[in-house]
Amino acid sequence: METRGQRFRHSLVTVWTLAVLVFLYLPTICITLASLTASRYFQFPINKWGLDWWQKTFSSIEIRQLLSTSITIALCVTAIAVTIAFFGALAFARYEWKGRSIYQKLILLPIFFPQSVLGLALLLWFNTLGFSLSWQTAVFAHLVWIIPVVTLVISIQVYSFDPALEEAAFDLGATRWQVLKEVTLPVLFPGLFSGALFAFLLSWGNFPLSLFTTGADTTVPEYLYAKMVAGYTPGVPVLGTVSTVGAAILLIGGYGAILAMRRAKAVE
Amino acid sequence: MAEASPILSLKSVRKMFGAHAAVDSIDLDIAEGEFFTIVGPSGSGKTTMLRMLAGMDTPTSGDILLRGERINDLPANKRPTCMVFQSLALFPHRTVGQNIEFPLKIRGEVPESRKARALQLMDLLRLPQSYYAKNVLKCSGGERQRVALARALAYDPQILFFDEPLSAIDYKLRKTLEKELKDIHRETKKTFVYITHSLEEAMVMSDRIGVMRAGKLVQVGTPHQIYSAPNTRFVSEFVGDVNVLPVSLDTDGRLHSRLTGARLKPPPVPEGFSEGHLVIRPEFLRFLAKAADADNAVSGRLYNEYVLGSRIQYQVRVGEGVFAVEKLRQQAFTGKLDDDVIIGWDAKDAILVTD
What we know:
heterodimer; A: mainly alpha; B: 2 domains; 24% helix; elongated
């Protein structure tokens, strides 16, 4: 039986939790509400509800182009970042080598640079080296910032990796390649998977780096910003909602996939 | 001990880490089918030595010969040897069956023959067949040991190495697994090379034991030789509780105890001995009615007693020194704490060591 004091404390915790959730999610919910207007302008409260802007947004070729650019960049970033960060994480957490501690600090530095400054710096370099700006240069710019993050994420998994596993596989006759394929990659897979999710989502939502480096191409966050500054339509909250919900589904789906894998293993 | 030609020979094997010799000029022959254990405290170089034998490290100098062939630079995956790791290194993403089959899969065997072999090994190691599809992480400590051993045996190695696999297991289970391992050794007739920091563990299982200290092999012999004729104070203390008296040899052939000042009748004195230590095991000490009942006697005070299962150990304080005396429980000493007692031993039961 709970005493009166315990019940009081529990209700306080509940109220506080709810307050935090409201604080975190109310703005996002308002964006969704703003997209459900039939009016041309941003008004609150909404007088006339409608799905017109959702329909208009999805039939727009421009929007499709935007989504395709953002997804292409995010997929390229994910593939390259996970590959490089995997080896980076092995150097970070698995092997003892001279200069490792300097490397560990250097690799984390780009995370702390203000992204707009990093974007500007990259823009200057692309110009100097004579690269014309496009979604490809944006991929490179994203990688500068995202590879360190993904390296960290994968390193966490690598730290809990027992190097004896590789030695044991090697001792049991496996070649270096077989050790990687049969032991290292599968054991580190959860880390690689969450690294990939991070890479995709960070690239998907990135504004400051894209702003400086996409050139004539436009990503979703860039478009949203431009439309907010000039030429607002309720298409902005529609796209904002799609972008947020898409990211959430990816994240929850990814988490669910990992859980399902664990459960499948537990059943065996 | 099997007196066959050596399967594994070490010729002045040395491993340097910087200026420090982790393994220092070791010569050793291990016979075919032998259960050989290397014992030493942590930092004695035993793990480095095992890693060189298994092919995970290369010696700085010297040679390692497998049936007469030099294998110094042969990598671990090309050696017909296999190791059971301290952490066991079971693949956490695999089932019991998949773990055992790993070396067979690597070798390219078909799934049916792999499974047949895995089940056969599980049978040998008393793992229920139903465990075949069980996740290794769901197995208990003892079961994991068996899976690790089954996986190593599946490789069909000529020599099996063990890197303290039982060190993380609780006492009771460890005792069972030690005996089980010795039984497996009999059944498979393979050469086992085991390392541990516990001489007690080594005694139970081994045909021969090598005691290591600071990179060198101090003594190699059967468990019986190591126990009854340790060649140094280090080895004698490694076996368990012993009484060690610093002594010097007087001109009249008796020993002078530097601790109590007593003059003692010595066991056979090694050539050229002038001073060193006299080692007396607690079970060779006994309580005396009068000093003349044994070759040597000292008097002291009964300070405490400890029950060690089948035996009882008594702590007797003699001046500044402390003696441990052990008796079987059925023959427990009837004296009370703080009684004045006389303890003694016969000269032949003590051992003289130089360092």
